[in-house]
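Question thread 4412

I'm putting together a teaching handout and wanted feedback from people who do this every day. The idea is simple: show students a protein as raw sequence, then show them the structure tokens that encode its fold, then repeat with a second protein so they can compare. Below is the first pair exactly as I plan to print it.
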Amino acid sequence: MIKTAKNIHGKFFTRCQQAIAETFGLSPLTAFIAVIFSALVIVGAVFWFFHSAPPTTIIFTSGDDGTSFSKNAEKYAKILARNGVKLKILKSEGSLENLERLEDPKFKVDAGFVQTGVARDSNKEKLLSLGSVAYEPLYIFYRSEKPIDLLSQFAGKRLSIGEDETGTHVLALELLERNGIKSGGSTTLLEMDDEAAEAALLAGTIDAAFMMSDSAASTTIRALLGKPGIRLYDFTQADGYIRRIGYLHKIVIPRGALDFGQNVPEHDVNLVGPTVELVVRDSLHPALSDLLLEAAEEVHSSAGLTRSRGEFPNLNGQEFRISPDATRYYKSGKSFLYRYLPFWLASLLNRVIVVFVPMILVLVPGIRTIPAIFRWQISLRILRCYRTLMALEKDMAGSESVDKKELLQRLEIIENSVNKMKIPTSFAEQFYVLRVHIEFVRNKLEATG
């Protein structure tokens, strides 16, 4: 059975070699080279066709249950499922853990949400941004009979600053430090998750809690906004903070936005916060980048409590390199095929265009070049024989005392070298004409005295 298969392959290869040799007038060796070249190009194109196919699964690192990161990732999953792509969601503690996963080449993940400001000393060379998708406001809930106007007034109190490895923890420490409040001082800084912080704040065992929606559930934040005796800190110095800390933005919750009937809040509340970036590894397939951007546009472009309609996604305020695919998408949308065809069909046709058209552009000139080089080599060999023959004839006519024997020996050498030449049938005419000319010179030489 194995021998039969080998015989079939051998016969097929031989036929291809003979067909090329007869078509282009090549020698067996040159035809063999042409066959090998064609086979390598075709095999390479077929391999790249399958290798370049976009994966059907995206691994996404989001956030904890109930957080905005987790909820938005679930919305992405439903949108991508419409195109036959599965979004596998990995829970996390928030932005810092997401960033660590994306940076670690051993961790299998493709994309995730990361808030700006946490990637200061990180290795970002292999990461790209698909744009900002939302604001990430910092909520500071506190117990006090009177409103607190400055963050420095929290000195000496018991503060929950979020769990370690969260964006809340990073931003809280920076803001407090800029107000002279540092770890180890008179202020008690506690690393607590959002549920524990909510319970402690309601029980009065802490004085304030810092929360952000990457790690705090939206139900927790909304519950605290309506609790009697719990106030939401108003960043009266918001304009100053966003000028001093470049990645922060001023975010305003308008009066009555939470409850028009109860007029909650009673006045505009100023918050500060970074933006959230949709970060991917630079190995992510361009077609999948488009799908993620399409999902981001559908999820984040509507109006919300902290954003205007159409404000997100955008390319403003990125901490990572902008993906070229994102730049193209924001400028002109999805590519032509993906815009009008189903994802699977657009992917197939796109790969045909990207792989097989260049293959043809390489293969056709390559096949034409090999015979041209071969014919040039054969022509050059024939011309060399003519050059030697003409030199002999010149020596024969340029001297009165011609050494006929020496010239005949030289002519014999030329004739022997010509007879040993392996010439394809396409050069038969030139070959026989050369032999006629050799015989002509011999007759001329023998006719001399």
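The second pair follows. I'd like the answer to focus on this one:
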Amino acid sequence: MERTILLVDMDAFFASVEQQSNPALRGKPVAVMGGGKRTVVTTASYEARSFGVRTGMNLHEARQACPELIVVVGNNDKYTHTCTELKKIYLRYTPLVEIYSIDEAFLDVTGSEHLFGGPLEIGQRIKREIRKRFGINATVGIGPNKLIAKLAADLSKPDGLRWIRPHEVSEVLEDLPPGELWGIGPRMAAHLRAMGINTCGELARTPTGILRSRFGITGERLKMMAMGRDETPVISDSETGEVRSIGHSMTLPRDIYSMSEIESYILILSDRVAFRARRYGYAGRTVSVVIRYKSFETFSLQRKLTVPTDDTHLIYRVAKEIVRPIRLREPVRLLGVSISSLIKTTAQQCLFDEQKKRRRLLETVDGINLRYGSYSLLWAAALQAESHKGVISPAWRPEGVHKTL
């Protein structure tokens, strides 16, 4: 059965939400950035983009491109709330909704499009509802699979609506540079150009054996992509598989070298990981720590436990044991802590009074932070770490264990 997939892609999402909530920002060049000293642009309004302001620029670069740039510190609560409310709109048209990122969602309307007058009508309705409810714009791409739906959206931004029908796919792809396809990055595109492959049409006609010899199994996938084929299903929240890991990371407000400072951040990260594990009923047998140096060199180390845990202090203790022997070659820019080898558990069984007391303490702290916001209560050993509110994780979802706080 031919599928019909929609991608709803919010236009300059963070900046649009800020402009809508503050009328003084409308029509102005706006950049949304984090609250740290060395933050970068997470989203720029289209007015700012016209000056050359781009995601990933630091503040100095952004102001050089646009001296009149208005900088707004991002408010994750606004964006996550809007995303959660947007999902309610999508669910009116199909139960098969996959929140791919905070500003993108795939909808499989194959079985429901006839109820609403077809995919174009669904796309128009969604755009109108979003505009009416939130005062912001969305682009909707429609195709026979996720790859083509994504391409249709990319080709029609901003505030666009495009349907690439199955019989149009080969024509649309023929002269399209491979780098325009979702999943083919600049480095891969450069490798293809070095082989004399400059369009998707040329890539589709390249013998599979040549691509396989150059890129391995990835070569076959590249050819399929160039032909517009993608069998990846739209996976709704209720269908997502088992959670494999629970992690939390942060780019630090400044590069640090002191082990005592590192351990303070490790405690904060361990606490966030353990909080989510307890909340959603998981315990992990493997603790991992990720370290990124100032030079962006990144590595990870891990240690296995004899018994799975969701205890903040046990995770913290193991994470400290991992990092203490490390002889740092340069200051640290980013830290991350995660647990994996997960098991589902309703509650940790406590055999001794001391364990029961600690369990009650953890649950009390969880309850307060859940009610009054993250970091309302902090462990004393974490106070050395500078206050930090990072950019929202790409893994964020409106519900479940990836709904990070």
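Top answer:
Good format. For the second protein you could add a caption like this: The chain is about 40% helix and 20% strand. The two ends are 40 Å apart (CA to CA).
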